[in-house]
Write a structure and sequence with these properties.
By secondary structure, the protein is of the alpha+beta class. It has six helices and 16 strands. It has helices spanning 25-30, 84-87, 103-112, 117-121, 134-137, 168-178; strands spanning 17-21, 40-44, 49-51, 55-56, 65-67, 69-75, 91-98, 101-102, 126-128, 132-133, 146-151, 154-160, 186-188, 196-197, 203-208, 212-218. Bound molecules: magnesium ion.
Length: 219
């Protein structure tokens, strides 16, 4: 059965989750990488989604799952192309999510030159908060969105959309142009610096300013 996004008054199935790599310079630097010349896109399946309040079980085949807190935009229309000026109007809802990453498995796959889908797409690897309507917080000229991540009450990551290398609008254009977007698809817009390991028993809270909160427990 398809999960649905938590957006009051809407009825939107969770679709493909497009994730943007290295969209904040300080995170690219901490990974020993540069900001890519073109958007770096990978995909998580809908089955990796979990709503706020979930318990996420760390897979047995990894010993190093990292948190990456990211602003998530959920698309409300079917788009095969859209202009940058119109892109934000296609956003049904905005939330805060975690791009959970089995860093050890990803690093090994990169070393071998193999796909790293498993490290990013496992069951539970994409928890996302309830959504706020895009029209309320994501319009041209609106203030940047700030967000943070707490693990057991300690702040681990802080970010602002003002620090993105590529804007949310430009990312929507790129993904629509290359892949096509469908209602219910989402874009994880990249993580700021401060990624680190999670452990069984951790309580994780991600906050999108005062708009949305995601809480998950790690088991
Ligand atoms: Mg990420």
């Amino acid at each position: 059965m398809r999960a649905q996004w938590d957006l009051p008054g809407a009825d939107i199935d969770v679709g493909t989750l497009y994730c943007i790599g290295r969209n904040y310079a300080a995170h690219a630097a901490e990974m020993g990488s540069a900001v890519p010349d073109e958007p770096l896109v990978f995909i998580k399946p809908p089955t990796s989604y979990r709503p706020s309040g979930s318990t996420i079980h760390l897979p047995a085949w990894t010993s190093n799952v990292h948190h990456e807190v990211e602003v998530v935009v959920v698309i409300g229309d079917d788009l095969d192309a859209i202009s940058a000026n119109d892109a934000l109007s296609a956003v049904a809802g905005v939330g805060i999510g975690l791009d959970l990453t089995a860093r050890d498995v990803q690093a090994e796959a990169k070393k071998r030159g193999e796909p790293w889908s498993r490290s990013k797409g496992w069951k539970g690897a994409a928890p996302v908060s309830g959504l706020v309507p895009g029209a309320e917080c994501l319009v041209p000229g609106a203030d940047p969105l700030t967000f943070d991540l707490l693990v057991n009450g300690d702040v681990r990551q802080q970010g602002s959309t003002a620090l993105m290398e590529r804007s949310i609008a430009s990312l929507i254009c790129f993904v629509a142009d290359v892949f096509g977007l469908r209602r219910g698809d989402a874009i994880f817009t990249g993580t700021p610096e401060g990624v680190a390991a999670l452990h069984s028993g951790d309580h994780v809270e991600a906050r999108l300013h005062d708009l949305a909160t995601l809480t998950v427990n790690i088991a």
